[in-house]
Amino acid sequence: MSCCGLIGTFCTFVVLIQTVLGVFRWIYENILGPRFGKSINFSSYGRWALVTGATDGIGKEYAKSLAQRGMNIILVSRTLSKLEAVAKEIQEAYNVDTAVIDVDFTSGPEIYEKVKDRIKGKEIGVLVNNVGVSYSCPDFFLAIPDREKLIQDIIRCNITSMAMMCSIILPQMVQRQKGIIINIASMSAVVPASNLTIYSASKAFADKFSKDLAAEYEKVGVIIQSVCPGFVATNMTKMKKGSFMAPLPKQFVEAALKTVGFAGHTAGYIPHCLMQVSAQFLQFIAPGLSRSITLKTMANVRNRQIKRGLYTSATN
Ligand SMILES: NC(=O)c1ccc[n+]([C@@H]2O[C@H](COP(=O)([O-])OP(=O)(O)OC[C@H]3O[C@@H](n4cnc5c(N)ncnc54)[C@H](OP(=O)(O)O)[C@@H]3O)[C@@H](O)[C@H]2O)c1
Ligand SMILES: *[C@@H]1O[C@H](CO)[C@@H](O)[C@H](O)[C@H]1NC(C)=O
Ligand SMILES: *[C@@H]1O[C@H](CO)[C@@H](O)[C@H](O)[C@H]1NC(C)=O
Ligand SMILES: *[C@@H]1O[C@H](CO)[C@@H](O)[C@H](O)[C@H]1NC(C)=O
Ligand SMILES: *[C@@H]1O[C@H](CO)[C@@H](O)[C@H](O)[C@H]1NC(C)=O
């Protein structure tokens, strides 16, 4: 065989092996493991779970689902009255203890002193970094209303909060040699997401941060997972009813919790997983087409909101 023939055969072989391994790993992590594997006993990781952005949407469902699994819950978000209402609801429904911490994650570093103070003496087995602000509507960077404030809010709320909460809680997990950290990123972190630039870049931080942190601490028994959901029907997406592609938070979180311990990085919910691989495949074979499809989708979302009178672009 000629030299070129050999190289060709070798390359084909490598691509084939990688593809087969990739497909099997994906099926195990997202479908077989969660469905047939031994599910995680969350309460064996510690008595308490702490959830940020816990009074609505995805965060509230994480709080409820972990309480249902027997964990005491620390709820963290901005509005004290909502926190108290959700804490009461959880206590009554699941007969567990709750604590609340009201902080606005868009504020400065002083809020983390309050968090440290309020969690003193609590053994935290599970941390869910869910809080996040997004655009009220996808748009070009320079067309974002009140752009400079949104930039600060997103970075403080999405990036700083995740790193700081890990910095506060990871030490006790490392000391006990067990713990679970779930970081909520977004599919926009891994597929083209023009018109959501600051948001999608902040989600890429979440995803990359989780993967590299996992490499550092999984050896000592801390599970770190990044979850990259597609659309979920919450206030953030201004959807009221769930659908197959945009599930209700409860459906989404039940599916996502089952992947903990199997997948270090997942979309969490099978239709979203499939959408994500399709998008990545399209990006690989036809990047231009992929970009223009994103732009069209974003424009549709925006036009719908403009039509419903929910949004106006800035003009600069
Ligand atoms: N929904 C989706 O389609 C989707 C898709 C991909 C990723 N995600 C991600 O999933 C996460 C949750 O989204 P969601 O749709 O569930 O959101 P949501 O329904 O809007 O809930 C947001 C939660 O965060 C709290 N919060 C908001 N701003 C805060 C601040 N500045 N300080 C403290 N707490 C604050 C809110 O509490 P208060 O209002 O009481 O302050 C509320 O509990 C986000 O990280 C988002 O990026 C969502
Ligand atoms: C899970 O772990 C807790 C604490 O270690 C234990 O009390 C409980 O029985 C376990 N539950 C199951 C289903 O194994
Ligand atoms: C901030 O984080 C929240 C929750 O993780 C997410 O929904 C939101 O899109 C993020 N915003 C930005 C700008 O990254
Ligand atoms: C959206 O927010 C409103 C008011 O804050 C709340 O009553 C409602 O339950 C929220 N909807 C969802 C789907 O979380
Ligand atoms: C991004 O937003 C601009 C308007 O601000 C719109 O004209 C454009 O079509 C959008 N692009 C995409 C890909 O959504």
Strands ordered across the widest β-sheet: 3-2-1-4-5-6-7
Bound molecules: NADP nicotinamide-adenine-dinucleotide phosphate, 2-acetamido-2-deoxy-beta-D-glucopyranose
Shape: globular
Average pLDDT confidence is: 90
Q: List how many beta strands DSSP finds.
A: 7
Contiguous uncertain segments of 5+ residues: none
Relative helix content:
40-55%
Task: Give the SSE layout.
Layout: H1 3-36, E1 48-52, H2 57-68, E2 72-77, H3 80-94, E3 98-102, H4 111-118, E4 124-129, H5 147-176, E5 179-184, H6 197-217, E6 222-227, H7 249-258, E7 265-266, H8 270-285, H9 287-307
Parallel strand pairs: 1-2, 1-4, 2-3, 4-5, 5-6, 6-7
Describe the structure.
Belongs to the short-chain dehydrogenases/reductases (SDR) family. The chain crosses the membrane at residues 6-28. Keywords: Membrane, NADP, Oxidoreductase, Transmembrane, Transmembrane helix. It holds the Pfam family adh_short. The protein is an alpha/beta fold and 316 residues long. It has one domain (30-307): 3-Layer(aba) Sandwich (Rossmann fold). 53% of the residues lie in helices and 11% in strands. It has a seven-stranded parallel β-sheet with strand order 3-2-1-4-5-6-7, with helices on both faces. Helix 2 (57-68) packs parallel to helix 3 (80-94) and helix 8 (270-285) crosses helix 9 (287-307). The model has no long low-confidence stretch (mean pLDDT 90).
